[in-house]
Amino acid sequence: MEPLALRHAPGLLGAGDEATFEYMPGRPPTWDLPGMERYIESLLSLEHHLALVLIDKETDTPIGSSSYADIRDEHRGLEIGYTWISPAYRGGVANAEMKRLMLGHVFETDVFDSGPAIRVMLKTDELNTRSQRAIENIGAKREGVLRNHLVMPDGRIRHSAVYSITIEDWPEVRAGIDDRLSGHNP
Predict the structure, then answer these.
(1) Residue 39 has pLDDT above 50, yes or no
(2) What's 73's DSSP letter?
(3) Does 14 reside within a domain?
């Protein structure tokens, strides 16, 4: 994982397709290089937000992205969101590896002035059952649904399923992810 930059646009364009963003309120306005560049620029312009790109180490190719969002220093909390992974990498270990890196960073280092994160939130479209299973598979706890949470680009009203991991949950979540990544829990 590394900070997202405009130079990643060609690789990210090749990693996904328009269907990848079906459940996401933010998406490239057009499915071409200028559209991906505008999408990246929009992520980079958000306040309290750090956009990252997921790189396949073997091919040095971007395969998706995720962000630390809604970063709230005074509450030592943030959201991990805006996540998408190339369809070719779904169902493998890419999401678990990405979440292990991101969660480990915020729970195991002093990312805030007063210490590590105490809560990470994850949200997804209530219709996106694949994403919900992926979030549950990393050990996040479902908290509920934000009804009429967002208006999607096509005008549909989105309900968002909300999950969290707290610093108290982290040791068990970390062990579960580590077991999965070591092959003990495929």
Answers:
(1) yes
(2) G
(3) yes
Q: Rg for the chain (alpha carbons), in Å? A: 16
At 18, list the tokens: 């328009």
Using the predicted structure, report yes or no on whether residue 181 has a pLDDT greater than 80: yes
What is the number of structural domains in the chain?
1
Q: Is 184 helix (H, G, I), strand (E, B) or coil?
A: coil
For residue range 51-71, what is the model confidence (pLDDT) as tens digits? 999 999 999 999 999 999 999
Residue at token pair 């949200």? 123
Enter the tokens of residue 57.
């180490």
Determine, yes or no, domain membership for 186.
Answer: no
pLDDT tens-digit map of 92-116: 899 999 999 999 999 999 999 999 9
pTM over 0.85: yes
In a domain, 152, yes or no: yes
DSSP E strands in 57-140: the ranges are 61-72, 77-85, 119-125
Q: For residue 47, what are the contacts with CB-CB under 8 A and spacing of at least 6?
A: none
| Residue 149 belongs to domain spanning | 2-181
- Summarised one tens digit per residue, pLDDT across range 120-165 is 999 999 999 999 999 999 999 999 999 999 999 999 999 999 999 9
Question: What's the rounded Cα separation, in Å, for the pair 27 and 96?
Answer: 23
Asked if residue 151 is part of any domain, the answer here is: yes
Residue 29 vs residues 35, 41, 72, 133: alpha-carbon distances, Å:
5, 12, 28, 28
CATH number at residue 155: 3.40.630.30
Q: What distance in Å separates the CA atoms of residue 50 and residue 27, rounded to the nearest whole number?
A: 16
